[in-house]
């Protein structure tokens, strides 16, 4: 350990003098660092300002050179939750009416509670032979859109296997072990993506019943109403009357479609006339045409 005897011989406190000289030099260094920090702040501020000016130039001022920026048309929809409209450059002025008859829905099926014959809990690994009401090897059909797939059912088929087959057929399928239910739905909405799961034999029907995926018409009010609609045209033992009923249904449907198309045509004509009237009002009564003439000096 070094020992110092500051100022004992000379009577001067050399340690204090050295410290004060060092502090004097440190002040200059500290001042230079503060100036450097302040300059860095100014540089960052200028960079941000330049970025904002560049964005203003590219997003707004640059587009003001083109006439299309001043001729754009805007469309407002009274109910944006039902429909959205994109306005083109050549859109006519006018008011259009759109009637939404029915919004597309996604078909789905939630099964009943699946029970095992032994009373144990049911999971995705459970075999169909362990389910209450299973009848043996059978076959079911899954139809979705334009796709039809037959599924073979055996005693060793598990619930997980059934889910895989349903997914391969183009459906979303899952099994809730907590509630013991199947959940099946179409991947997209709309009538064209509707699906059906039907039995192709007795054991296939028992398999659907065991998996609680069997749906009776009495439980499907929409399908029952559709069935009753067309069943009403059929007359038992009277082919002539049945054909007459079918012909009347077709004629009624054609007349309804014709009236619908006619109403659409009238609506489009009215919109066109309204747009033309608006254009004429914008032009005003004092319309004139400039003609060029060639002049010669003789």
Topology:
Elements: H1 14-61, E1 108-110, E2 138-144, E3 147-153, H2 159-168, E4 171-176, E5 181-186, E6 195-199, H3 202-210, H4 221-231, H5 239-283
Antiparallel strand pairs: 1-5, 2-3, 2-6, 4-5
Poorly predicted tracts of residues: 288-298
Instruction: Give the end-to-end Cα distance, rounded to a whole number of Å.
Output: 119 Å
Radius of gyration: 41 Å
Principal-axes geometry comes out as flat
Main pleated sheet: 3 strands, antiparallel
Q: Count all strands and give the number.
A: 6
User: What's the number of helices?
Assistant: 5
Which percent band covers the strand fraction? 5-15%
Strand arrangement, major sheet: 1-5-4
What does this protein look like?
- The longest helix has 48 residues.
- Strand 2 and strand 3 form a beta hairpin.
- Among the domains are: 31 residues; 108 residues; 39 residues, no CATH class.
- The strands form two sheets. The chain has a three-stranded antiparallel beta sheet with strand order 1-5-4, with helices on one face. It has a three-stranded antiparallel beta sheet with strand order 3-2-6.
- It is 41% helix and 11% strand.
- The C terminus is likely disordered.
- It has 298 residues and is an alpha+beta fold.
- The protein is flat.
- The protein starts with 13 loop residues before the first helix and ends in a 15-residue tail after the last helix.
């Amino acid at each position: 350990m070094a020992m110092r005897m500051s100022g004992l011989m000379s009577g001067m406190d050399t340690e204090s003098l050295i410290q004060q000289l060092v502090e004097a030099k440190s002040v200059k260094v500290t001042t230079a660092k503060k100036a450097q920090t302040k300059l860095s702040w100014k540089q960052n501020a200028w960079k941000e300002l330049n970025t904002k000016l560049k964005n203003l130039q590219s997003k707004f001022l640059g587009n003001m050179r083109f006439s299309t920026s001043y001729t754009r048309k805007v469309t407002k929809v009274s109910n944006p939750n039902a429909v959205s409209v994109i306005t083109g450059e050549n859109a006519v002025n006018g008011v259009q009416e759109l009637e939404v008859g029915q919004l597309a829905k996604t078909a789905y099926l939630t099964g009943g509670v699946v029970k095992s014959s032994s009373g144990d809990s049911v999971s995705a690994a459970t075999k169909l032979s362990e389910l209450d009401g299973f009848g043996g090897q059978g076959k079911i059909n899954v139809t979705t859109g334009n796709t039809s797939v037959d599924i073979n059912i055996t005693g060793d088929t598990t619930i997980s296997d059934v889910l895989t087959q349903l997914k391969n057929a183009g459906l979303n399928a899952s099994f809730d072990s907590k509630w013991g239910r199947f959940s099946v739905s179409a991947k997209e909405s709309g009538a064209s993506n509707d699906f059906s799961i039907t039995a192709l034999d007795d054991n296939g029907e028992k398999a659907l019943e065991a998996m609680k995926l069997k749906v009776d018409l009495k439980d499907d009010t929409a399908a029952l109403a559709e069935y009753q609609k067309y069943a009403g045209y059929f007359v038992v033992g009277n082919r002539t009357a049945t054909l007459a009923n079918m012909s009347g249904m077709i004629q009624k449907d054609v007349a309804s479609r014709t009236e619908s198309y006619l109403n659409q045509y009238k609506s489009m004509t009215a919109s066109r006339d309204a747009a033309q009237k608006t254009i004429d009002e914008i032009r005003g009564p004092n319309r004139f045409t400039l003609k060029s003439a060639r002049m010669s000096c003789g």
